[in-house]
Amino acid sequence: MNWKFSYTVGFHPWEDTDQEFFQSLSSLLEQEEQGRNSPYGRALDIGTGSAIWAIELAKRGWDVTGVDFVEKALERGQERVRAAGVEVTLVQGDVTRLSEDQVGSGFRLILDTGTFHDFDTRQQRAMARSVDALATQDATVILLCWPRRIRPLIRGVSRDEIETAFAGWQIADVKPSFFKLPPPLEWLLRPDEHWYRLRRA
Ligand SMILES: C[S@@+](CC[C@H](N)C(=O)[O-])C[C@H]1O[C@@H](n2cnc3c(N)ncnc32)[C@H](O)[C@@H]1O
């Protein structure tokens, strides 16, 4: 997917989620927050885009850093952050080569709503290495993935690929996100999207 082009022309259907999607993410976040008091710790929003979910995390009481490599997306993100009146640190960077200097470390939660699943094998492993280095020992990684399939635009990823890239982690849960695209895209792309929740093995 050419993300820069998408944001330039205003094609970002992933931002048009509904209540059912929101509930599916909320229940995963509740699991991470249960039995703790806010602030919950550091959260890293991988491929944050226009910071929709980074803002939601901040509202819930996480100390959030969002990373994306598309300037236009981050500009929209900054506007949203200002309008929401929350604190979110937005950083321009490549999530396949994140460093502590750039984003810090000690992340208890790593959220990726739609970045990893478009990566090739080399990029998947590089992103997982970055995450592994920046996450706490008790961290949770939440990935939103489409299955690997021949389709335009998004590559998709298999469970095996997730397990191989995130060696040292194990998949604790797989749940549907209920994400739906507008009719022609839904039929063409068949997202069949799922949340993968990973914990260190
Ligand atoms: C499907 S969009 C999701 C955006 C946001 N998480 C959301 O749900 O609204 C994927 C995002 O990943 C970003 N992205 C893709 N590859 C990246 C990379 N190597 N480094 C940083 N960001 C990347 C894109 O710019 C895009 O904003």
Automatic annotation (TrEMBL):
Its EC number is 2.1.-.-. Signal peptide: none annotated. GO terms for biological process: methylation. It is an enzyme of class 2 (transferase). InterPro entries: Methyltransf_25, SAM-dependent_MTases_sf. Pfam families: Methyltransf_25. This is Class I SAM-dependent methyltransferase. It comes from Marinobacter suaedae.
